[in-house]
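Side project, low priority. Logging it here so it doesn't get lost.
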Amino acid sequence: MTALGITVALLVWVTALLCAFLWKQMYSSRKLPPGPFPLPIVGNVLQLELNNIPKSFTRLAERFGPVFTLYLGSNRVVVLHGYQAVKEVLLQHKNEFSGRGEYHVYRAHKHQGITFNNGPTWKETRRSALTILRDFGMGKEGNEARIQREIPFLLDALRKTNGQPFDPTFVVGSAPCNVIADILFRKRFDYEDRTSLRLQTLFNENLYLISTPWLLLHNSFPSFLNCLPGSHRKVMKNVSELKDYALARLKEHQQSLAPSCPRDFTDCLLMEMEKEKYKAEPGYNLDNIAATVADLFFAGTVTTSATLKYGLLVLMKHPEVEEKLHEEIDRVIGPNRIPSIKDKLEMPYMDAVVHEIQRFTNLLPSNLNHEATQDTVFRGYIIPKGTVLIPTLDSLLFDKQEFPDPDKFKPEHFLDEKGKFKYSDYFKAFSAGKRVCVGEGLARMELFLFFTAILQHFNLKSLVDPKDIDLTPIVNGFASIPPDYKLCLLPRSQA
């Protein structure tokens, strides 16, 4: 065959492939929500701003409406944008869309645990975990006592900075780390403990890396990019190290387990494993328990830690808000008493500020991926089983009608005309429905008590003029990662 003949044959072959792709695309998407036309192989990845996925989703929602379809590689994704669409998916269709979209860097968990589990065990694992967590005080008086016990250690560590500039990452991170460690292992770490610092480093590193453009690409093209070097390998290594840590704690607990007197969450799950060991298909084994414990340790530390870190930066940017908080704290609590949750009833401004910090910093803007567990009719469209759904949380938290000037930090978003705390159903920072954050009650309690305790004893001092503080996240993908910074804490009596 001549060179011309080979060229013509190749052109015919490529044209045939493109025609087949276009026909398949048009046929398969005829009952799906609208969306931008995908390119072969890459889908719509090139049409997204990879370093700011939430912004891309907002722009596409303005063009295609609150429910639209994207293709990330060959993966079909339906994005929900706005209060009504997100609420319908999370609450009205909570069973049909309760699956968990794939996160390939967490394959070490093998569809086990809670957060990234999309296997047959997720419902039972989550149900058991919630029951045990309630028994150990999740969101109740038991956890308030845990947090209050940790407050003096946090304040002591902050005093040791002696008013000098410091990075708050590990100091404020150690407090929620110790609270969840007490629930899981009946253990607390010194604030300079190497193991604790190592674990927090892994937590923070993973939250940052899975929010970067490379990890979005890896999740879209796992078969190809898995063979290449990149930060996905670091995440997978970190996930394995965290799971190994959890597994080591499990084995220690097994050696001293007293079924009549469980000490912590880990003991309770080991007891469940013992009960099920004679079943034909036991729901628990050491791998599943280790993944569950690792999930809770990660989520219970890093989300609260990041919110505390971001919140302190926001308050330095708005010294007028900090001043009002000091006045309320002095009036309700005074200088010495450890804050309690009942104080929240008399501290509407602090309550509003904590909610506004969570709204404004927008920690998980696009939520965790959901997945359709069956073919489902939704708003007249057919969402096939296995389709990934992204119910965006930032579209609620930044709704212009519910929160006027949503891009501005305004505690008044959560206050009525009389200065009382005002609840908003648009506040879904912890998601909702079947996959709502299992630690929501604990996190809410920690944020109120830790912020209150810090501001009870310290004035925040920025190293730059407040108007020059940049609140822009350094990465805005899976999570909105706060920028690194240093600050000084001045004891209130010396400020």
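Brief comment: Confidence is low (pLDDT under 50) at residues 18-28.
Revisit when time allows.
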